[in-house]
Structure to design on (91 residues):
């Protein structure tokens, strides 16, 4: 566990999911539900994590607080995340 009380394996898989959606699929905004599904799929062979959804939410919130992600809430209360470190295409 890190100082944010999230297992390290969850943080690693959340970052991998964000990279996958932002670079490979080329999405600017990533729904939290898509991140949760991708993390649940990629972490399936690792040691089980208790309350995985809450751990993923905590990890996403921590990355937002650190400035790695930008959190946006849509009208349907779906949280969208944008990678802050991604260079702009215009310049």
């Amino acid at each position: 566990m890190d100082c944010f009380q999230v297992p390290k394996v969850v943080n690693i898989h959340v970052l991998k999911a964000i990279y996958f959606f932002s670079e490979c699929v080329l999405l600017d905004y990533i729904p939290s539900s898509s991140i949760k599904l991708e993390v649940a799929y990629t972490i399936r062979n690792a040691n089980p994590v208790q309350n995985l959804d809450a751990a993923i939410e905590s990890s996403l919130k921590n990355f937002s607080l650190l400035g790695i992600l930008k959190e946006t809430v849509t009208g349907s209360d779906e949280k969208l995340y944008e990678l802050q470190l991604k260079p702009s295409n215009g310049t």
Observations:
- The two ends are 39 Å apart (CA to CA).
- The chain has one domain: 8-83.
- The longest strand covers residues 69-73.
